[in-house]
Design a protein that fits this description.
Layout lengths: L3 E2 H7 L8 E5 L3 H15 L9 E5 L5 H9 L8 E6 L8 H12 L5 E6 L9 H6 L1 E4 L5 H15 L5 H11 L3 H12 L9 H8 L7 H9 L3 H12 L6 H22 L5 H15 L7 H12 L4 H20 L5 H19 L1
Parallel strand pairs: 1-6, 2-5, 2-6, 3-4, 4-5
């Protein structure tokens, strides 16, 4: 069956019968953990959970253990839950995988099996998805990630100003696992007034106004000096690389090119912003700021970035990406500085 969204899973739990087998895959491991918690809370009486809950690594099970785990009867309860993690490990144990696929044809009514595939394995297992309630745990759009952040912060007793929540998302690239780790650190602070963006920047090591999105905006606005000055602090941040910066820049340039194609057809202002927002929703591009803000930025940049300039910028970004991956002569900062100057000088000459 086709994969469901994470939100669809959460909506289904309070109002429907539990599926005999759930298969959770995709890059957001933290959403998988939340999904497991929601399913377990729906399936098991807390007083009897210890008797009716098993969690194992799929890769460590032989065929007999797979069958025994999934068919053992619950103790003093209607059902039991079995969580099998790292199911991608079954690629190295085909007999155990074959045993579960046979079980999947006639799953036990007394057992809810939750299969969890690690984020490193990108491809969906078609055989597992065909017989289970498959859930694609994908990155959340910026607005959904913001609601998730605020809910998580509230559960930890952390209060953030709106700008602080936005900065935390920008500083982490909307990566929920990183957001959760940073919120745990913030939760250790003494209770007090809501945290500001500046205070959050100090604590997470990414100052307000110095995120990868701020760098991209400086490049596309033609602020070469600011963009170059930001490279040192940016590249020192955990999880930030030259390739990551170029990926964000390239994605945005493609969006600006799309906006410019409509701009040249005399689609302007609010009409262009709404059109770009609709395309962002269709494409579901993750790792970008709030889609409404992003669509407004694309529409604004379109006026200053004719199609020929966008094409040249994309070629320059491609060359820089290849240089970062292949050269041993220059460092990341040098390659990115050269890219910034190529884009901003070209913009100044065109102006």
């Amino acid at each position: 069956m086709p994969s469901h969204t994470y939100d669809a899973l959460l909506r289904s739990l309070p109002k429907g019968e539990l599926a005999p087998v759930y298969y959770l895959h995709g890059p957001e491991d933290i959403l998988k953990d939340e999904a497991v918690q929601a399913i377990v809370e729906r399936a098991l009486d807390p007083a009897l959970r210890d008797f009716n809950y098993d969690q194992r690594s799929a890769a460590q099970l032989d065929p007999e253990s797979v069958y025994a785990l999934c068919t053992t009867l619950p103790m003093m309860a209607e059902r039991r839950v079995v969580v099998l993690r790292e199911v991608e490990g079954w690629k190295r144990k085909p007999k155990a995988r074959a045993a579960f696929l046979r079980y999947l044809e006639r799953p036990a009514v007394e057992t809810v099996v939750i299969l969890i595939q690690g984020a490193a394995e990108e491809a969906e297992d078609k055989d597992l998805a065909r017989g289970a309630y498959a859930v694609a745990c994908e990155p959340l759009p910026a607005e959904r990630a913001r609601r998730w952040l605020l809910r998580r912060a509230g559960s930890l007793g952390v209060t953030l100003e709106d700008a602080a929540a936005e900065h935390l998302l920008l500083a982490t690239g909307n990566d929920l696992g990183t957001v959760a780790a940073e919120l745990q650190k913030l939760a250790a602070l003494p209770a007090g007034a809501p945290l500001t963006a500046e205070r959050v920047g100090e604590l997470v090591g990414v100052r307000h106004g110095e995120t990868i999105v701020d760098w991209r905006d400086a490049v596309l606005d033609g602020a070469a000096g600011r963009a170059v000055a930001m490279l040192g602090p940016l590249l020192d941040q955990p999880g930030v690389s030259g390739v990551k910066l170029i990926t964000l820049l390239g994605t945005t340039l493609a969006g600006i090119g799309l906006a410019r194609s409509h701009y040249d057809r005399r689609v302007r202002g609010g009409s262009l912003e709404r059109l770009m927002f609709d395309r962002l929703r269709q494409l579901r591009l993750f790792g970008l700021p709030d889609w409404k803000q992003e669509s407004a930025s694309w529409a604004r940049w379109a006026a200053d970035w004719p199609a020929a300039r966008v094409r040249n910028a994309l070629r320059a970004a491609r060359d820089a990406d290849q240089a970062l991956k292949n050269t041993t002569i220059s460092d990341e900062r040098g390659i990115l500085t050269d890219l910034v100057l190529r884009l901003t000088v070209a913009r100044a000459e065109a102006a």
